[in-house]
Amino acid sequence: MTKGLGTVAGSAGWRVPPLDPQVGAAVAAAGAGAREVLTPEGLAAWQRRDAAARPRPTLDRLRDGGRFEVAQWRVPRADGSEVTLVSGRPAGVHGALPLLYYVHGGGMVTGNAWSVLPRLLRSWALPLGLAVVSVEYRLAPGTRFPGALEDCYAGLAWAAGHADELGVDARRLVLGGKSAGGGLAAALALLARDRGGPAPTGQLLLSPMLDDRGETFSSHQMAGHDTWDRASNATAWRAVLGERYGTADVPPYAAPARATDLSGLPAAYVDVGSAETFRDEAVAYADAIWRAGGEAELHVWPGACHGFDTLAPHAALSRDAHAARTAWLRRVLGA
User: Fold this and answer.
1) In the sheet where 296-301 sits, what is the strand order?
2) Please, what is the end-to-end C-alpha distance for the chain in angstroms?
3) 180-208 burial by CB neighbour count: b if 16+ within 10 A, else e?
């Protein structure tokens, strides 16, 4: 593991990009847990720990003393079962608001729709005057691909079709997510395009988990160093794909990096860290959008590891990243 903040040798002798000093200090303060490796044998225990450490806030807590209007919805899946959505918007703001349809992270094996809302409401809903809908998709390995993506699509289709009920403007809709949520948001944009479904104006892809193959340079370079490295990533992808893992039978809706046609997609914001496992797949995805004639804004944050802004929210780098994301949202949504 990386002990200091300078450039060090990777697991195969490659040099590893240095961490930003403030980010590095936060990683060091977090201890060994910041770089704990997720293994197939440890997945169930990992999920239990995450559920205990990331409890679902109540709707009353999410309302934050009346600052936000919050509601929970049960909407139909194609098979007749239901998926849960949690919506929030600034209280007392009338009219149809822009909508951020958000997909939580957690490697598609952990996380929940409720715990991400406080930050989203404070950081974007309040200052930009927008609504947020967070989707509670089913987790792997209990539900394998395409379960989570179909949950996300069912929620998106319902939100777009019930815009009046939600008080949102479906013409100003951004898909967003971080890590696994970023990968699912990218897949959702592909699926909505191909099914002729809702037409988002943008996709906010933060350190997106796009490629199951683990073949990029950064995946090998950051092995044993990033807070989410190739071993953890492989465990998560195995949980999601089951017997399909490692085969050619993985569609782009599962792993968007496998897509060969990225034309006709909404404008993308892609950001990632220079010291991150997902660096090269994120850069390649933005490049593929450009090559297809699309629009993408790419940021590679120097010295950032996976989840840097959560580990070090007050670091200058994290503040810069938040400002850039907010500026893009404002432009795309006209907020």
Assistant:
1) 68-76, 82-90, 131-136, 97-103, 168-178, 202-206, 267-273, 296-301
2) 43
3) bbbbbbbbbbbbbbeeebbebbbbbbbbb
Instruction: Give the C-alpha separation, 253 to 44, whole Å.
Output: 26
The DSSP code for 55 is P
pLDDT at 163: 97
Angle formed by the axes of helices 147-161 and 180-195, to 10°?
A: 60
Helix (H) or strand (E) run with residue 288 in it? helix 279-291
DSSP string, 192-255: HHHHT----SEEEEES----SS--SHHHHHTTTTSSS-HHHHHHHHHHHHGGGTTSS---TTT-
Parallel, antiparallel, or unpaired: how do β-strands 168-178 and 131-136 relate? unpaired
Q: What is the pLDDT of residue 240?
A: 98
- Cis status, amide bond into 141, omega within 30 of 0: yes
Beta bridge partners of 174: 100, 202
Q: What is the mean pLDDT of each run of 10 residues along the chain (335 residues)?
A: 40 83 97 93 96 92 97 93 97 95 98 97 97 98 98 98 96 98 98 98 98 97 96 98 95 98 98 98 98 98 98 98 98 90
Rounded Cα distance between 108 and 259, Å, is: 19
Estimate the share of the chain in helix, then strand, then coil, as percent rounded to the nearest 5. Answer: 40, 20, 40
| Nearest alpha carbon to residue 27 among 322, 303, 323, 324 | 303
Q: What would the DSSP string read from start to end of 143-202?
A: S-TTHHHHHHHHHHHHHHHTHHHHTEEEEEEEEEEETHHHHHHHHHHHHHHHHT----SE
The span from the CA of 278 to the CA of 265, in Å, is 21
Q: What is the pLDDT of residue 145?
A: 98
pTM across the whole model: 0.95
Q: What are the structure tokens assigned to 128, written together?
A: 């930009």
Q: What is the Cα–Cα distance from 136 to 298, expressed in whole angstroms?
A: 28
CA 325, distance to chain mean position in Å, is 13
